[in-house]
Amino acid sequence: MTACVAAHGCITCGDEAAPMHVVKVDAERGLALCCDAAGAHSSVEIALVEPVAPGEVLLVHAGTALGHAAAPSALGHAAAPSALGRAAASPALGRAAALPPPGLPPPARIPPLPGISQGATRETPA
Amino acid sequence: MKFVDEFRDAELGRAVAGEILGAVDPARHYKIMEVCGGHTHSIYKYGLDDLLPSNVELVHGPGCPVCVIPMGRVDDGIALAHEPGVIFTCFGDMVRIPGSSQTLLDAKAEGADVRIVYSPLDALRIAKQNPEREVVFFAIGFETTAPSTALTLRRAKAEHVENFSVMCSHVTIVPPLRALLESPDLRLDGFIGPGHVATVVGARPFTFLPDEYGKPVAISGFEPLDLLQSVLMVLRQLADERAEVENQYARVVPWEGNLRALEIMSEVFALRPHFEWRGLGFISQSALRLSDAYAEWDAELRFSVPGVRVADPKACQCGEVLKGVIKPWECKVFGTACTPERPIGTCMVSPEGACAAYYNYGRFAREREVA
Predict the structure, then answer these.
(1) Which of B37, B143, B200 sits opposite A14 (nearest CB)?
(2) Which of B19, B30, B323, B352 is the most buried (most CB within 10 A)?
(3) Average pLDDT of B242-262?
């Protein structure tokens, strides 16, 4: 993975996260060998997303996988903009079916978290 | 690559741009803030600004991790780098951020052992390879990067790596957004939410934007179609007089976030009472320090850190740029005294900074026509 190339800047500083294919998993060490879009391989910490299987796509930032990229078929598409909806239905643009589904699960069912982020949302700046 | 190529389809992009045109009220001027610097970068890299109607203005937010680090904090890092026996590690863009008298790159030229790492885990590896040296990692970034630092510290503790420490400058995204909304000099209609921060914290923490301030939000991915679709979602909420959090980036952002990441962050970090943001001043409980359980690895406790507050150069208007009050080209030194090669302000250093994005993609002399 390109990390800190002067011409493009540092992707870690830039808060970027890159989708990477899992090639091989070392569950004992909590690492996975992953491949990015340019074909570069790197070792990725998978403690936050285990279990992980080869072939999956992970979202990787600073050498750490933050999440799985979900298969589009597992998601709803009810509120997608109509242009995207049309394209998704077109055989010529079949891959556009991976376009993201707007809409969220009802928030009321999610209990409050004790974590840092929850605390931060309640704070009022000076 | 899957999840990338399909979101760069030009034909679809033009189709969504057409829908955006149909969703706006020609008599109204829209100001939508993209919170994340990564969004700013993508908008200008792909020329998305040119696809939007002239009455839809994108305002650039404070979500560039490098840009918001105040000068005094950079000086603290440089002071640590000059400590005898220290190997100072940081991410790539940080070495070029100007301190009050020099950059980390200058310190390296003077003999300080400053090394660029891609991940905090690389810094830990350097510590294990150099047990006779003290290795300090300058941790910056929002909630996207904090889990990686937290995992590294957990490993350092488990493996008893005692010559490793972290100068923690991680920040959180919600408090500065509140500060911006409380600011009287900025009127915003809606937000493009930070997709990668939301991968960690979830979409739920952003509900205060619609609930308390009546502002619509679309949590967005970073590819061109992601951003266009998010703009459309915000415009449609405005047209329907709705205000809610919509998750355009649902392929990776869960509503409740990454619970394991939040758990480990809670273990390793604690909120600072206040923290200085470049351009925004002190914001209470907006940054993280190491928790008491990890105090042994806190570089600010292990070493003497100056901790002096330093004012930004008078010519630099990064603060106004970060608040979205002015466009980068409205700064007096933009593109003249301040360039990516010789930056004065942080926004020109990081490619995610609005100034660098404007400069690198040819917006430096352009004034948008606004209604």
Answers:
(1) B37
(2) B352
(3) 95
